[in-house]
Amino acid sequence: PRPPIKGLEDFRISQTFQIHRQAIWGFAVHHALRAPVLGYGPDAARLIPGAHDKIPIIAHEYVPSHVHNWIFQALVETGFPGLAAVLAVVIMLFGRFVRAAARGRGVGWAGIAMMGAFFGSWLANFSLWAAWWQLVVITLGAILLAALAGGAPPITDTGRRAPLRGIAGSGGGGP
């Protein structure tokens, strides 16, 4: 719903499910359309006039700290060009993991799972600019990309090796 929200009848999706998040997202989209090119600046949605106004029916602020959705947050804070740039990077990274998974590389599936977990939970929680959250995504992504570049074995590789000769307990008939 667009601000100002007067009552439950303003909620089009649901009048019971996550109405505070719906109000936050409605506020973000409403203001994103007012600054579509440059947005309001990174981590600035909470500084938009009216962001700290209370929603009468639930007595919570429109934007208590952040937008609780990485797509809406990128849109309101960086405009449509910023959102397009973020989406381009996410799609390219996801495509790289999908191509690796299609070639039977387990690291590709791990990358798909990591992106699903992070970007899925980012749709309803966490600030896009939270340093701790970005560091975890970047660190795990870097490990997976390094494994892709370093030639991590395909998932069909059983890991079996020829027995070592001459070493006790190796099955190689040692001394």
What brief labels describe this structure?
175 residues, mainly alpha, 4 helices, elongated
The residue-averaged pLDDT reads: 86
Helix fraction by DSSP (H/I, runs of at least 4): 40-55%
The main sheet comes to: 2 strands, antiparallel
Distance between the termini: 79 Å
Identify the overall geometry.
elongated
Show unreliable segments: none
The number of helical elements comes to 4
Elements, N to C (H/E): HEEHHH
Based on DSSP secondary structure assignment, what is the total number of beta strands?
2
Structural class, by secondary structure, is mainly alpha
Strand content: under 5%
Quick gist of this model?
This protein is an all-alpha fold and 175 residues long.
Write the layout of secondary structure elements.
Blueprint: H1 19-32, E1 54-55, E2 60-61, H2 70-102, H3 106-121, H4 131-149
Antiparallel strand pairs: 1-2
Characterization of this structure:
- The chain has 175 residues and is mainly α.
- The chain contains 4 helices and 2 strands.
- It has a two-stranded antiparallel sheet.
- β1 (54-55) and β2 form a beta hairpin.
- It starts with 18 loop residues before the first helix and ends in a 26-residue tail after the last helix.
